[in-house]
UniProtKB/TrEMBL annotation:
<dbReference type="Pfam" id="PF13417">
    <property type="entry name" value="GST_N_3"/>
</dbReference>
<protein>
    <submittedName>
        <fullName>Glutathione S-transferase family protein</fullName>
    </submittedName>
</protein>
<dbReference type="GO" id="GO:0016740">
    <property type="term" value="F:transferase activity"/>
</dbReference>
<feature type="domain" description="GST N-terminal">
    <location>
        <begin position="2"/>
        <end position="81"/>
    </location>
</feature>
<dbReference type="InterPro" id="IPR004045">
    <property type="entry name" value="Glutathione_S-Trfase_N"/>
</dbReference>
<dbReference type="InterPro" id="IPR036282">
    <property type="entry name" value="Glutathione-S-Trfase_C_sf"/>
</dbReference>
<keyword id="KW-0808">Transferase</keyword>
<dbReference type="InterPro" id="IPR036249">
    <property type="entry name" value="Thioredoxin-like_sf"/>
</dbReference>
Length: 311
């Protein structure tokens, strides 16, 4: 099998989700470290400008957004499944958690370490990514609200774990566990587990569950540079195997479209549809640097429009 390449940075919580998934599936992978703040010209060549991290690459197949990456890993290594109790609950819980906890988790993090965040990072997140100010002066007045929200969510995790479940949706780890873990991991990794556990009043059930999830992590097989990843795309051919002509809105194969996140970092990626169904869309792009690549996106959380209709 062609090497699995993860484009990521160490303190990205969404990247941590995928690092855990690779560990759960016991897959070898190569690491490309990416700057937290653009420009990232070689990664942009692969993705068409999609600016969120992580990005997974297998040869000339490029996977954007963690939901799509998890779907791809499930195809590569079906067992152990990321959806042992079915996809619906795990995916719905994951999407809700990512969107509901992101602002309070970042806000609380800034309350603890905001004075250490580079000005370039803060400016980028305000102007190009989130659309609001995450500097310490902006976030400090909201600290009680962030604690209230995350403490409530922590109690929900306790309820889901209950007295019988080892994990959130049953006895086996699912994608929901990896998602709900990662924002708490971000806080604990930067502010200290004891501090965050006390501040949010996390239960022993939640902290024990976090220990079990943390144990899944698998270090990369090797570190490679961004140019090596571009070379792997140029020297390969798209070969994922996903094939569908079932776009629910009637977009036909070959249509030039834009695909854009619907929440933040709303940078459109343009290409021609080569496969689509209700869960996934794949667009083809070609540049001299990369050759022909297929860029994969999930449908939930993204907007696909015929390019002539794109804003």
């Amino acid at each position: 099998m062609t090497d699995i390449i993860l484009h990521h940075y160490d303190l990205s919580p969404f990247s941590e989700k995928i690092r855990l998934a690779l560990g759960l599936k016991r897959l070898d992978w190569s690491s490309v470290k990416v700057e937290a703040v653009p420009p990232r010209p070689l990664l942009d060549a692969l993705t068409g400008g999609y600016r969120r991290l992580p990005v997974l690459q297998v040869g000339a197949d490029i996977y954007c957004d963690t939901e799509m990456i998890l779907r791809a890993l499930e195809r590569i290594a079906p067992e152990p499944s990321l959806y042992p109790d079915g996809e619906g609950l795990a995916k719905a819980l994951s999407l809700w958690w990512d969107r509901s906890t992101w602002r309070p988790a970042v806000g609380l993090l800034v309350g603890h370490i905001g004075e250490h965040l580079p000005e370039a990072f803060l400016k980028d997140r305000k102007d190009n990514y989130l659309g609001y100010d995450i500097s310490k002066p902006a976030m400090d007045p909201l600290q009680p609200i962030f604690v209230q929200q995350l403490a409530a969510f922590g109690e929900w995790l306790t309820s889901m774990l209950g007295t019988r479940n080892a994990c959130l949706t049953g006895d086996a780890v699912s994608a929901a566990d990896l998602t709900c873990y990662h924002s708490l991991w971000l806080l604990r990794a930067n502010a200290g587990a004891e501090v965050i556990d006390r501040q949010l009043n996390l239960s022993p059930a939640v902290t024990a569950w976090m220990d079990r999830i943390a144990a899944l992590k698998r270090e990369p097989t090797r570190e490679i540079d961004p140019q090596a990843a571009v070379d792997a795309a140029r020297d390969g051919e798209p070969g994922d195997g996903f094939s569908a002509d079932a776009d629910p809105s009637g977009l036909a194969l070959g249509t030039r479209v834009s695909v854009t996140p619907d929440d933040n970092a709303k940078v459109p990626v343009f290409g021609e549809i080569v496969a689509a169904d209700a869960q996934e869309i794949v667009i083809a792009r070609e540049t001299p640097e990369t050759g022909r690549v297929h860029v994969h996106f999930p449908r939930a959380g993204f907007e696909t429009l015929a390019a002539g209709d794109a804003a």
